[in-house]
Design brief:
Elements (H helix, E strand, L loop, with lengths): L23 H14 L7 E8 L2 E8 L2 E3 L2 E7 L3 H8 L2 E8 L4 E11 L2 H10 L2 H9 L9 H14 L10 E15 L7 E8 L2 E6 L3
Antiparallel strand pairs: 1-2, 1-5, 3-4, 4-7, 5-6, 6-7, 7-8, 8-9
The structure holds flavin mononucleotide (FMN).
Flavin mononucleotide binds next to strand 2, strand 4 and helix 2.
């Protein structure tokens, strides 16, 4: 495969330090809203990087809430990512909105949200997703697909209407310490505005591309 000539020149918009909000969460909300409005593909999809046994590992999950404290997603606490987070509660998130030639990188500590908040979100999920959360021992080896389907059938028979939240399934919140906004620009002279949290105050600076 010859990949050498696959490249885009980015020119859609620019990002100036002066026009970025003082609060990076507000800046993030603005960019996420613009990605949704532009009908970007999977605008809430983000890469979550963790460290397990000293080695990085990453996967895509969906952002389900952003609030003044941070970024919330839901998963299986016993999954591979859950094990990594138990070992090392520092993670990195990356969003890429190709349609807007934009990326956001977030780094910070991660913690579980409260059981009540996880219950609330779990109850809002479609029935089959709630059944699936019980049926899937996420990241464990599965002998066959039919084993998973049989498990889901048993769970559905056990909980025909109300499905309680499995104790091993819930939300995490990433409490950001660093948030970077990247806007692609012509000739690879991209705009990068980076916020760092220093003693509770966000500092904003431009980085070299
Ligand atoms: C678009 C997309 C959205 C996903 N959303 C989630 C999610 O919200 N939560 C989740 O646990 N896995 C989600 N996954 C699956 C994960 O990428 C991953 O396969 C799974 O969480 C197991 O990862 P782990 O073995 O590293 O724990 C999503 C995958 C894709 C491609």
């Amino acid at each position: 495969m010859d990949l050498h000539n696959i490249r885009e020149d980015y020119s859609k918009q620019e990002l100036s330090q002066a026009h970025c909000h003082a609060d990076p969460i507000q800046q993030f909300e603005q960019w996420l809203q613009e990605a949704i409005t532009a009908k970007a593909n999977e605008p809430t999809a983000m890469n979550v990087a963790t460290v397990l046994d000293g080695k990085p590992t990453s996967r895509i999950v969906l952002l389900k809430e952003v609030n003044p404290n941070g970024f919330v997603f839901f998963t299986n606490y016993q999954s591979r990512k859950g094990q990594a987070i138990e070992q090392n509660p520092y993670v990195a998130l990356t969003f890429f909105w190709a349609e807007l030639e934009r990326s956001v990188r977030i780094e910070g500590r991660i913690e579980k949200i409260s059981a009540e908040e996880s219950d609330r979100y779990f109850a809002s999920r479609p029935y089959t997703s709630r059944v699936g959360a019980w049926a899937s021992h996420q990241s464990q080896v599965l002998a066959s697909k039919s084993e998973l389907v049989a498990k889901a059938t048993l769970i559905a028979a056990k909980y025909p209407l109300q499905v309680p939240r499995p104790p091993h399934w819930g939300g995490y919140i990433v409490l950001p310490e660093r948030i970077e906004f990247w806007q692609g620009r012509p000739s690879r002279l991209h705009d990068r505005i980076c916020y760092r949290l220093v003693e509770g105050v966000w500092h904003k600076e431009r980085l070299s591309p």
